[in-house]
Specification:
Layout lengths: L7 E6 L13 H11 L4 E6 L9 E3 L3 H12 L2 H8 L1 H21 L4 E5 L14 E5 L3 H5 L4 H9 L4 E5 L5 H8 L4 E2 L8 H5 L10 E6 L4 H4 L2 H5 L7 E6 L12 E3 L5 H11 E6 L9 H8 L4 E4 L2 H4 L8 E4 L2 H11 L2 H18 L3 H18 L2
Parallel strand pairs: 1-2, 1-4, 2-3, 4-5, 5-6, 6-7, 8-9, 8-11, 9-10, 11-12, 12-13
Helix pairs in contact: 1-16, 3-4, 12-15
Amino acid sequence: MIPMENRLRILMVSTSYPESDQDWRGRFIASLAAALGRRNDLSVALWAPHGTLPSGIVRNTTIADENWLRRLSDLGGIAHLLRRNKIRAVGKVLGLLERLFRSYRRHSVDVAHVNWLQNALPLWGTKTPAVISILGADFGLLRLPGMKALLRSMLRQRRVVLAPNAHWMAAELESAFGDIAEIETVPFGVDDPWFALQRLPVKENVHHWLVITRVTSKKIGDLFEWGEGLFGPNRVLHLFGPMQEMMTLPSWVQYHGPTHPAELLDTWFPLASGLITLSRHDEGRPQVMLEAMAAGLPVIATDLPAHRDIVHHRETGWLATSRKDFSNALDYVEISEHNQTLGEAARKWVTQHIGSWDDCAGRYALIYTKLLKASP
């Protein structure tokens, strides 16, 4: 056991965190924090909305910060506000930057681990080494006028690793920041229970398909158009997720509202024929797709870079490019032999290329150490 005074001091920052076990928001942050907390070479403080902290993690947020972040979460977060109410979003962005500015200076740490690029801007004026986890939503931020220049000003003040969670993001980041930052892909992990899940045989020839997403027009994508006429009593579509845009749902969609991992593990994943995501959103590497694949579920997805990075067509799932192609995918995957073969290949791929959250924490720990060794 490494003495506390000899451990690396890490400040992890996130604007999303689950308030309870039934909260869908920021589940991956909670899983990563738990894995980092299990390591005996790190001392980790978390700046994030209120929620139950894993063992080994201490809180860095003040009560005022937590209350402010809770209100932000209730509004859907900054990315959601930018889509719905840009004037209000600007005020929230400024408030967030001010609170993070104080947090980064509140305590001395060895490395700042920042989730989302926007949360790294208040590091400006410090020299704290940083690892910045990049997700798909960050690419929308990079398209804002002047944003790359602001980020470059902050990045060049420190030793920094930009850590996209999928390989397809690396080229654009290298082009924008490769001269002043290292780019190193760090895949997120998957919790162990997904790998252990045992699927049930199809009953009464009824196939249950799952869509798990925030309900917005871009996240839904082509689902309602392509799915019309393909679902009914023997092929049921179940939609899970928070309604973040007012949308009229077709009568053939069974909408269940927000969900959480325990419900999916205990009830829905065992009986499902597969997962569907026809998103047109700026996706990074969707965590629910990795969890479904780890559980042995085939995935049918649109042919986006983020999906192509995970799903190998007709090997671990199906990349659909049209309504007819989507219909063919459903027919193909519902054949028992095909379903089993795709599911087993998907689980094997996630095991070999993604691994657990402890594996992910190990990848980050190596970067923390590298940053400190290279810092003056």
